[in-house]
């Protein structure tokens, strides 16, 4: 929901929807009338919480101020700002729900408003890294408790009683001694005059009194709008006089426009203009690729016009990128020593002296995000002011980049965050918003830039392509005494700086150097790999290839030693302990290691829980098989069991999936379940079909027919989710991403159990049919 | 001049007769509930009901629906309380929600034709509608629920 267009008005048939400018100040009546109390530092009270998070180290840190996040209207309506982007995780419900819980607001009288991009005001807004609940559980509780305290103080003053005698209960403040009550609305004006209490002295609710947190009884706030077509996504923003644009971009990353002939395009009915779109050389972070824009009165005309363009491109150096050849390069690199990034004991010597060495070389191709909503943005640039409406995961970063690109002050840029029709990391990169801003500036009119599905596949910031090679040395008893893992993949850093050839610390920390097994001799290596296209974050990032390799290797070791997969896995995890990898400054998802260590007791626990609930070892029909995998990512622990069925023609189906997650203290178990159910689908999609390939520097796939994803008829029969109950002080951890990595290796372990065939190269495709 | 009835209201268009219905609905009529996902009838996000049949509006031209009745998500039920919509809310189906209008229209069309579809019939009828978030288990449950009455 954004402030500029009133969804109610869109139900009619107006050609153009009238825009109502409503300033934030007029919406935030009550507590939000004047702002100012801003703590741009980590605000964690050690007395109240036995852990710390990395929230304060994020750009712009955390802001704990009820006057910024909460408004109470005289009619009692409580408005809570959601400062994170909603892309399907439920964060727009979960974070405001935490505030409502602590302030004793009645959820049915709460309205959620989406914050625009302003990190000085709201704190960090990057909705990525499965961080929102983990970084904001405490601050949102503190904000709610502050608001509640201000309401209680106002009531106590009104009645002339000590504040200790009054208590907020379900949208009212109550003085039980006298039986008096005042609604939040009646107290709003007075509460706004109260000073904001110090965080250290705040009294937080006892979790046993929670009405909403941890219960999962609340539907998402956009549920009604989504089911009635009123929910506002990026493409649904309409401004008076708005033009519709699509852009023909260089087919090869780093390519340039040589010439174009607009004549045929200009003859298409509805096309108004054809113009060059400014581009930046590769790599240049999230700057647009440039090309030729077709401006029209509607999107259909713009697309038809673009089809009619005659274009000549210079493909540049990346025109040689070829996925078949590149795979060979990665494989060769994985067979030679590379940069050592973790070393314990002497893996070389131990492998030489091993009784048996099990080798697995795993290949995982590029993946595209293909969120159902392709990138889209609306911009209205007037003079030195710009307003953007876009489905962006990083409104603060978008604001910064729009300001830089247009050469105007950041204060002059407003970024309105619509709902995101899926994000998965793609919408952390704001190139589409920059394109709209540049076109609007040049046209002097509001513009919507719509990407087609083909654009999305051809110009994504792709998930990397990798070869993961693991050698495991076994002694005579079958115990693993040596482990060498070489991970070779172009790095996301290559999108920011030319020539970046090694994984960044955050990529190393995603399943390579944080490998938790109890093995005496470990070597993790990262040979060089050059990038030839834009590489970016994709849900779960490097954990996908690493978990695939490590957990497939567990299955291979089980087979080599004739043991059960689960027992092999538990033996490798070893004793319950805090793992301390010999890695200097190991990246731990940005979290302090003391609060978020690698705890093998928790890792074992999810394996044991899923094995129990998922009935590991159960008898399955002929042609069926069970596979298991576990992975810690985004500081959560997740284990998955997949049952596969393979018919005589090699056709695969998945009758059942069981997943156990330990994500620490949680807010909304119902949304955790939905994330894990979805992760099984995304995991199955990438395992069965996921591959973006290049030939002559160009992406070969065009749409959902050749970049397939799982549809309902091949989705798992049932996906069961089990959530580990948290201890009293277990810090919250990630949910959005951790479900994906264990799925593919559990699937491949299941396929091996069913058919005796080890799949080391993704996607599965027709490998079982051969 | 092409005339078409959309959600019970007469609309007319004198532009390009080949314009896909999707873009007429979204950009010309302001009915943005119908979504663009692929443009090639591969994902179902743009599903609307024409007369009594689910069609992909991205490959259906405005001319193809001349004189016919189009129902979009906005017109499925005056209060948004079609049994499918209610079931969707009861099951808390959506994640990002972008594909859901198309899913709901497809499910509504299925139930018009087959009020009590079996498990396999649901999975087959809904297979043209992609959900990248992966809400299929809940979609299936919601269609069951809608078919049994809520």
Automatic annotation (TrEMBL), chain B:
Enzyme Commission number, as recorded: 1.3.99.16
Enzymatic class: oxidoreductase
Pfam families assigned: Fer2, Fer2_2
Residues of the 2Fe-2S ferredoxin-type domain: 1-76
Gene3D superfamilies: 3.10.20.30, [2Fe-2S]-binding domain (1.10.150.120)
GO molecular function list: 2 iron, 2 sulfur cluster binding; isoquinoline 1-oxidoreductase activity; metal ion binding
CDD domains xref list: fer2 (cd00207)
Keyword Oxidoreductase appears in the UniProt entry: yes
Keywords: 2Fe-2S, Iron, Iron-sulfur, Metal-binding, Oxidoreductase
Name under which the protein is recorded: (2Fe-2S)-binding protein
Organism the protein comes from: Bradyrhizobium japonicum
């Amino acid at each position: 929901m954004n402030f500029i267009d009133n969804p109610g008005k869109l139900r009619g048939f107006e050609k153009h929807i009238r825009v109502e400018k409503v300033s934030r100040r007029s919406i935030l009546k009550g507590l939000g009338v004047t702002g100012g109390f801003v703590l741009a530092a980590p605000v964690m009270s050690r007395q109240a919480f036995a852990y710390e998070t990395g929230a304060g180290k994020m750009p712009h840190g955390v802001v704990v101020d009820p006057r910024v996040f909460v408004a109470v209207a005289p009619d009692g309506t409580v408005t809570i700002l959601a400062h994170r982007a909603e892309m399907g995780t439920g964060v727009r419900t979960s974070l405001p729900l935490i505030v409502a819980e602590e302030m004793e607001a009645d959820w049915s009288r709460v309205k959620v408003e989406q914050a625009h991009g302003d990190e000085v005001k709201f704190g960090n807004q990057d909705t990525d890294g499965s961080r929102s609940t983990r970084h904001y559980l405490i601050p949102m509780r503190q904000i709610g408790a502050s608001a509640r305290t201000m309401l209680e103080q106002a009531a106590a003053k009104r009645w002339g009683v000590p504040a200790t005698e009054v208590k907020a209960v379900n949208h009212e403040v109550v003085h039980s001694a006298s039986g008096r009550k005042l609604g939040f609305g009646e107290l709003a004006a007075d509460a706004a005059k109260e000073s904001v209490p110090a965080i250290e002295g705040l009294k937080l609710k006892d979790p046993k009194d929670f009405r909403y947190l941890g219960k999962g009884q609340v539907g998402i706030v956009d549920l009604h709008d989504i089911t009635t077509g009123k929910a506002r996504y990026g493409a649904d923003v309409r401004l008076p006089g708005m033009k519709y644009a699509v852009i023909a971009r260089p087919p090869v990353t780093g390519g340039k426009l040589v010439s174009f002939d607009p004549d045929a395009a200009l003859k298409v009915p509805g096309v108004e203009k054809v113009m060059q779109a400014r581009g930046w050389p590769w790599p240049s972070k999230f700057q647009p690729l440039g090309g030729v824009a077709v401006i029209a009165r509607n999107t259909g005309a713009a697309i038809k016009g673009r089809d009619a363009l005659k274009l000549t491109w210079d493909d540049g150096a990346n025109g040689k990128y070829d996925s078949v050849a590149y795979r060979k390069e990665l494989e060769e690199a994985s067979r030679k020593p590379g940069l050592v990034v973790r070393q314990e004991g002497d893996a070389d010597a131990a492998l030489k002296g091993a009784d048996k060495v099990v080798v697995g070389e795993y290949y995982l191709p590029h993946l595209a995000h293909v969120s159902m909503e392709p990138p889209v943005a609306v911009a209205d640039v007037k003079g030195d002011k710009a307003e953007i409406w876009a489905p962006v995961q990083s409104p603060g970063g978008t604001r910064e980049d729009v300001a830089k690109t247009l050469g105007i002050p950041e204060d002059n840029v407003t970024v309105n965050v619509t709902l995101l029709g899926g994000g998965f990391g793609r919408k952390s990169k704001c190139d589409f918003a920059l394109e709209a801003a540049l076109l609007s500036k040049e046209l002097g009119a509001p513009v919507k830039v719509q990407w087609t599905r083909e654009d999305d596949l051809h110009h994504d910031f792709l998930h990397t392509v990798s070869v993961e090679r693991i050698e495991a040395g076994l002694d005579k008893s079958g115990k693993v005494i040596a482990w060498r893992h070489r991970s070779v993949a172009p790095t996301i850093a290559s999108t920011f700086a030319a020539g970046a050839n090694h994984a960044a610390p955050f990529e190393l920390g995603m399943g390579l150097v944080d490998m938790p097994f109890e093995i005496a001799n470990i070597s993790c290596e990262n040979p060089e790999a050059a990038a030839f296209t834009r590489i970016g974050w994709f849900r779960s990032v490097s954990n996908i290839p690493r978990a695939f390799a490590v957990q497939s290797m567990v299955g291979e070791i089980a087979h080599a030693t004739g043991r059960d997969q689960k027992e092999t896995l538990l033996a490798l995890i070893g004793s319950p302990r805090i793992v301390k990898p010999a890695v200097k400054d190991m990246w731990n998802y940005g979290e302090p290691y003391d609060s978020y260590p690698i705890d093998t007791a928790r890792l074992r626990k999810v394996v044991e829980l899923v094995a129990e609930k998922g009935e590991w070892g159960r008898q399955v029909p002929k042609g069926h098989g069970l596979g298991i995998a576990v992975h810690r990512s985004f500081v959560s622990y997740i284990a998955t069991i997949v049952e596969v069925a393979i018919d005589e023609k090699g056709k695969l189906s998945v009758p059942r999936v069981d997943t156990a997650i330990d994500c620490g203290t949680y807010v909304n178990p119902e949304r955790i379940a939905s994330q894990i159910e979805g992760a099984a689908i995304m995991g199955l999609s990438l395992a069965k079909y996921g591959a973006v390939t290049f030939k002559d520097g160009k992406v070969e796939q065009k749409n959902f027919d050749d970049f397939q994803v799982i549809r309902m008829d091949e989705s798992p029969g049932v996906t069961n989710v089990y959530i580990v109950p948290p201890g009293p002080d277990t810090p919250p951890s990630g949910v959005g991403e951790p479900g994906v990595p264990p799925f593919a290796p559990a699937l491949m372990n299941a396929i091996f159990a069913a058919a005796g065939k080890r799949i080391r190269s993704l996607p599965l495709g027709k490998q079982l049919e051969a | 001049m092409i005339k078409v009835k959309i959600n019970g209201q007469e609309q007319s268009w004198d532009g390009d007769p080949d314009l896909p219905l999707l873009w007429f609905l979204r950009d010309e009529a302001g009915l943005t509930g119908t979504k663009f996902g692929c443009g090639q009838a591969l994902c179902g996000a743009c599903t609307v009901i024409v007369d009594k049949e689910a069609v992909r509006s991205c490959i259906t031209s405005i001319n193809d629906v001349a004189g016919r009745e189009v129902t979009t998500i906005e017109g499925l039920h005056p209060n948004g309380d079609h049994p499918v919509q209610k079931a969707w809310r009861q099951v808390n189906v959506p994640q990002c929600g972008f594909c859901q209008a198309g899913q709901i229209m497809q499910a509504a069309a299925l139930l018009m034709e087959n009020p009590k579809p079996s498990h396999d019939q649901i999975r087959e009828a809904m297979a043209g509608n992609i959900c990248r978030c992966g809400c299929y288990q809940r979609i299936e449950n919601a269609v069951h629920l809608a078919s049994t009455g809520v």
